[in-house]
Fold:
Amino acid sequence: MKIILFVLLIGSTGTVSSAVFAEPQMTAVIEKTTYTYCEKLAYTIEVSEITGDLAIIHIRDETDKKSSAIPIPIEKLSNPIPSAYPFQKDIFPSGKYFIDIEYSGATTTLEFDLIDSDNLCISQAMKPVIIRWVNEEFTDGMLMSGFQNLVDNKLLDIPYQITEKNIDKIKIPQWVKSIGNGWIMGIISDQMFAKNLQYLIDQKIISNGDNRINEQG
Structure:
């Protein structure tokens, strides 16, 4: 009986010990392997256990140039990681990219291709401008000046130059702020927001003071 009990204790202790010192397992799955501009990167990190550690992410390009470390909280066994911002041409050149992930000693790498396309999107530099405009901190003219300077005119074409002389004359109907708020919340796409503004400009509902489309200041 003593021998049997001793064997059982050794077996039990060995099992617990291997579980304690085993590294957590991690896998990652990317939503798709080819992205175009204006799309958002999305992938999922799956782990065998929650250790309390952060996952550390680096994104690198074909030349091995990589981003600074991006800490990601791991709070579930399956953790969807959607990007907050879309790919933009002025930040990400087209090509192959890699996502290096490290979590509690486990590592893995995802890869994807970013291809050029005709997709156009509103620069993320416009987001604080739109937020302040919706909150009545920026004037209508400031908003349109931001679009003219920060957004490709193929997406939104303002047919007059906004200057110090006419910036305070530009008026946008108050109800358009609900569209801007929808864009901030991610309910309205870049294309839909720009399309609505373009229609209002073309119909001279958004005016530059006297509605002379060819005014230069």
User: Anything to note?
Assistant: The longest strand covers residues 106-115. Residues 1-19, 212-217 have pLDDT under 50 and may be disordered.
